[in-house]
Description:
two-stranded antiparallel ribbon; Jelly Rolls; mainly beta
Amino acid sequence: MSERYTLRNLGDVDDAAPGFGFGESWEARVARTALGAEQTGVALFRLKPGRRSPFAHRHDQAEEIYVILRGHGRMRLDDEVVDVGPLDAVRVAPRVVRAFEADADGLDFLAVGQHHPRDGELVADAWVGGG
């Protein structure tokens, strides 16, 4: 690994979802550590066809940007649900509750944002089955 840059294929990053019991819903390839990043987080999510995120969450400090790579679906943003599709980019401010739903073909997306340790909070939410 160079101090000037790090190159990793996100498909080669370990899928964290099964270890947390979420493998039936999605893949979660969280790459911050694999890239040696100290200030920026990036993750590749692959939500399986017809599934919703296994949980909703929000951050106290982190602003995140989600970029849809493949598929169509919906994104819950607090009390609003918006349609998303390929190359849509959604900026989400701190404190906004977010979750995803995939259409019949699944939904692949990136999440990118500044890393704030212990900043994430799971939220009980009936939309994803947790409320």
